[in-house]
Structure formats: structure tokens, C-alpha cells
Write a structure and sequence with these properties.
Distance between the termini: 29 Å
Radius of gyration: 23 Å
Helix content: under 10%
Number of strands: 21
Largest sheet: 6 strands, mixed
Oligomer: single chain
Number of helices: 0
Structural class: mainly beta
Strand content: over 45%
Amino acid sequence: MLGAALSASSTSAQGVVVTSELLEEIVALPGQTYERTIALENGSSTPQRVRILQVDYVSGLDGASYYPAPEDQTHARSNAGWIALPRTTYVVPPDTTVRVPYTVAVPDGLAERGTYWSVLMVEPDPDVAPMEADAGPVEIRVGHRFRYAVHVAATIGAGAPAVSIAAPRLVDEVESRALKVDLRNEGTTIIRPDIWLEVFDASGESAGRFDARPRPLYPASVATAIVDLDTLPRGSYSALLFVDAGGDDLVGSRLTLEFPEPAPDPGSSPETDDLLAPRP
């Protein structure tokens, strides 16, 4: 799944922000070429220099995201080689929005249909003056800088969406409770699975429906979905977990949830598999 496409690596008020979509998705044909732009807005009072890097993207469990270099050939569905930028560094004037164009050329004769993707990473590129040997005391300032991961996805042809689930588990803390479940896209196209939990109390009455936020998930990729259960009172429940990837069938699992009153042991683990047991 795409986690936060804005990756923590800047103070947007002091620099450039990306105001266009962070996921640029198109349905394309083999041999087709199309153009898109990235909107860079500088809300500060000084010019800002940025650079744009081409990287691949791989999602991991529990919110992990990886951005390897395309030459590492991390996965077979990279489209980094299809993308052309006129240049990789830009200076955005104060109080100005600059649109950076790029071209995506889908090759002919693709061996497999489906979704191909990569990332254009937009990050600050400050000019740093070299220090002189007798410059005297040095003042060091530590700040926050952001970089923006602009996902470029092209889907060629159609494919049946498919998803699998694994390792449902509870996170139980004093003031925070949730269900985590690992997802894998078993199909060939990007999906945005809807994930929800129907919860029932000991008498069989509904205790509510709880939804996870849907996020895109690329083919053969894994991610962890989180269903927030903060508003569910502590106790014992039965539950039905549903995952709808957009196909004809739902994927589901029957679960028992146990949320006991917290023990006064500060050394206990906040994530406990033994609180959640699959039901036959």
C-alpha cells in the first residue's frame, strides 16, 4: 500500500511543496506516449532550489517504504525507464508555482499486462557554500525537511483483482486499540482494497463496523492495514473481517477479539498475538 506519499526526510512553509497529485495513474496502451506535470509551489519569500530523482518503490509491512535505485532492479514492474525529464533541478521563484513536465513512453511488446510504476522524488537541493579554514565558530541549525514521492503508475490491459490476507493481530495499549492485518496483492493491477471489521458482542448484537483507510497496493506488493478500534469498549467479541479488492469475491476471516482490562505491568508488550484467536 502506499503509505504517506509525503515522506519525512522539510518545513513546507520554508520551501517548495508539491500541489499536484502524489499518485499519477493512467490506463495506457503499448506504444503510447503521454505527458504529465508536477506542480511545485514556493510559498516563501526566497527562491528555492529542488531536484527530482527517479527511484523505484517497494512497500513493506507495518508501514515500511523503500525507494531503491532503478538500476538495482528490485522488481520486474518498474517503469522508471519509460519516464523522461527535461532536467532534474529547478529553481522556483518566491510566491510562484512552477509546473515540471515529464513524458512517459510505454514500450511496445510488453511481456505482461498490468500495472507498472516508479516514483519521482522531489526534494530540496540547497546550495551549500564551502567553509573557509579561518571562518571561526560555526553555528549549527537543525530543522525538518520534507521530500515528496510522486508515484507514476501506468496500467496496460485489464486484470482480475485479487488479494490475500495474513497474520491478523491486535495492538492493545492503554489508550489505543487496533487490528492489524497483512495484505498481499495477488493480481497484476493496482488495487485499493476496502477493509472493514463487523464486531458483535456476547449476545450476538452488533457492536459496530470499523473501517481501515483504503490505500493503493501495487501487484505482488505487501502492506499492513490498520483498523482503528479505539472506540470499542474493552471486553470479548466475535468479529468478521472483510477485504474487498474490487473483484467478484470478498476475502474474509472469522475472529475472536479479547480486550481485557490492562494489567499494571509496564513491561508487557503492546502488540500481542495471543489476544486474537482465529475461529473455526
